[in-house]
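Researcher: I'm preparing a figure for a lab meeting and need a structural model of a single chain. I don't have an experimental structure, so a prediction will have to do for now. The sequence is pasted below. Please return the structure as tokens so I can convert it later.
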Amino acid sequence: MALSHVMNLVSNSGLVGAAGGSGSGGGGGSNDTQTVTVGELIQNNSGGSGAPSSVTTYRGLNFGFGSVSDGTSNIYSGADVERIMYMWDTVYPVAGVYMIIDGTQTNSGWTTLTIGTTAYARTNASFSTTVNAGKTSWTWISGTDATGANNPFSAVGTTTTCVFT
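Model: Understood. Here is the structure written out token by token.
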């Protein structure tokens, strides 16, 4: 019996994973891990022109708040991880996870982003290379979350692990 056949049998048993070749992970390991020191920005929206006032909260990593270690993507050749955050609003249905990686990237190389204990499938994200010039974005909009109850990040000032598999 060839070694590759034995590896397939062992892998298919669910006991261990077999590596898929050069550069790919086996055994359920991660493709990349980013540790976010959680920051937060709270924005008061005054409404006007008949629109209601609301409060928008951004939590995680974004320009101006939070930090990330190591901050470079193993999946996308060391490109900067610029944003991984959760946003919610007290009135408008814009709650969700927003991620930006520098440069024009492909929508491949990983299947799931797990923030803390909450998993987000790449295939469920809105993917764009045109929303922000020279940036690539993935957005998971979950709809209305007026209180931040679905926020996957831990408390401000603590760390949350973001794992790409």
